[in-house]
Amino acid sequence: MTDIDTHSWHARGRRAMTWLYITSCSVVLSACDTADTPPGDSTEVHAEAEGKAPDHVELDTTQIRQGGIVVEPAPSIASSTLPVTGAIGYDANRVSHVGSRTSGRVIMLRVDLGTRVKGGQVLAILESPEVGQIRAEEAEAQELVKIAGENFAREQRLAAQGISSRKELLDAEAELRRQQARLRSAESRLSVLGAGHGSDGQFAVTAPFDGVVVARDASLGEMTTPQDTLFTVADLSRVWIELDIFERDLQRVREKQRVVVRTTAFPNRTFEGRIAYVGPVLDPTRRTVRARVDVPNRDGSLRPGMFADAAIQVGTDGNTTVVLPVDAVQDMEGQKVVFVPGTKPGQFVPQPVEVGDAVDDGRVMVRSGLAAGAPVVVRGAFVLRSELAKGEIGEHGH
Fold first, then answer.
1. pTM, to two decimals
2. What would the pLDDT profile of 295-326 be if each residue is shown by its tens digit?
3. Which domain holds residue 276?
């Protein structure tokens, strides 16, 4: 064999070995890939066809229990409502226009507009000639009571020794009672004027209860009269919403009906209350009657003067709307979905729905996509959404 033939033979041998090595590796990798893929798994998220997103989740009994997944018939509420408009105002039982009960001059201001105050907190210090005169009478009466008390005590000692007559003792006692009455009169007059404490002609104007200073009309140095309002203090933890009920709708409205209120300032939020009062008089110009709703306002979002749109729950007319806990509705790629049981035990399928307004107790209306009474996951929907997301990641990774 020549050197050329020998070289050619070795080259063909190397190519054959290389092909065999590549073929063997391909077989091994294929076998490894097959071994890594389990024949079945109870938590597997399935896809109907290659390249499609998974369309359901399957869990076993243990996983359902651990995930806190609860399936119940979809609850509903009566959806017969009456749309009305109104305005937000103060709770008349929780607002006070604070002023002075006598003429005086403002010599000190202790609060500003928007200040939160406690009941009895000083708002301003005033000075009044009338208060000064009564205080002088009070001081004089206090001294006369002291003198009359000492004289009465002396007459009691003398009467006990037989030196003083009973008439003199009674006269001393009567004088003491007169001076005590004068003192009580001066104290009462100061109390009526709201000037029970202070010195000379000065006295304090105080807050009647806990609230917020929503108006301040007092100015330093100005003269005031009992007709002037110096401050307006309001407790805004509750507000009144005055609704306009048209004459044609009066027969459908009554006290204690539930009302859902919306405002322009908070379009994605609802406030709830119940009708507390329906007015007895019809406005002859607008042909409406005022109805009042008491609404909690703990965070102060509702401000007097706002306009409101309201829906009064006027009763049932055969129409119902499904309501679910907020957590039962999940967001999948911009689409609101709920999870309903599939065709097999432990199988759950996402179902698109249209969501409406929020209602009480952390619930939300479902306007379409789910029938009242249909089985639906009311707790644990987030767990199912997470399992579905795992399946989507797996599909995208292939």
1. 0.53
2. 999 888 999 999 999 999 876 555 678 889 99
3. 81-92+238-318
